Amino acid sequence: MDMQKVLIIDDDPVVVQLASGILRKKGFEVHTAKEGQAGLQLLQDKNPDIVITDYQMPGMSGIDVLSKIREVDDTIPVIILTAYGDASLTIRSMRTGAFDFIEKPINPKELLEAVKNGLQSLQAAKKEDPDDPETAQSKRDENLMVGKSPAMREIFKNVGRFAQTSVGVIISGETGTGKERLARLIHHSGSQQDAPLIQLSCKSLEEKHLEYARKVMTDYADQKVSGTISDAGFGSIILDEVGMLSADMQVRLMDYLNDHFMKDADKQPRLISLTTQDINGLINEGKFLKELYYKLKVFSLHIPPLRERKEDIPVLTRHLLQELNSLVNKNVHQVETRAIKLLQSYEWPGNVQELKNVLMQAVLLAHGEALEAKYIHLEGVSEEHVADDIPDEMPVSLAEVEKAHIAKVLAYVKWSKQKASSILGITRPTLNAKIEKYGLKR
Hints:
With about 450 residues, the chain is an alpha/beta fold. It has 18 helices and 12 strands.
């Protein structure tokens, strides 16, 4: 097995000698340079697995070296050394793409741990991403969402049922539940990479945006029909927060759908509408055109809030860690059992987006490969709230408990959905979806 190579760039001979000695004793092949330009030349000549560079050097600074390295290789881990414990410098280093930041004088244990973690992160990235960037992107697109709860399994089944068609879909759910991710999953399940995907914000939608989408889709359809390109599907248009369309734009959108997109059924793009609002409620209030709703909706999907599918948290956590590791160049892939229990004890008002934010902080704080409960910071919840005697596997599924509880509440209020929604703390659409999912009958 080839020795792993480390490049050290530092103008201080004492530091170079110390760091080189520590690393060589551990079996690394070490190359050294006294300044940035010479280090960059060695980078090309020796192709090291990891780089350690001083921040304060004559000529090029460590940040300059890091920036140059990132121009030619955005995967190689770079560790910055400095004698200056400056917060802004640390932030600049990390923002530029540094893997880690070590203050002088060098602590041998800290240096070895940083090098080890950097190399593990590099190996993990190589295993996760195939050599072909298009294949790598395709795999990421196919795994935009995960979930093992009954609700998510049913969503994935339905996507599989209509993915190869161009039927319109309305996706509802609270903010942060992953509606846009699901929309992109639908798109990539029915189209290849070069099929256009256009996202329009209905909060600020104007006619020029519709015209732009029409032109892109028409040009693409013409190329496909003429044989210039060939793939599955004619692309997708995501209408974000469709319930916020103004009355005027609802009429204009209807016109565009009638005159352009819906005219030739064989060449239409898929329309995917996202909403946090109850569209049926808006229709009843006279705030949304019923005709437009029927144009947009052939299939409807509802993503439950995370607090109603906490059994998805373990698989979601591991899935999000893969994304976050690649973003911050770390290799946190082990999850402590208490960390999962802590995450499941929280109600997640911000849903999956809040979970991602919490995990990002935990990954940045973590040392090594394990995500520990002590790195997870939740408002109003601490590690002490997690009981040690909670079993890892519950004898009854959360879905069964939820079904029984909803049935009990509905019976108590004599099936008044308004009262039941209030007691359960969920919206009417969510309650209706659960009644349908569990097959509850009066």
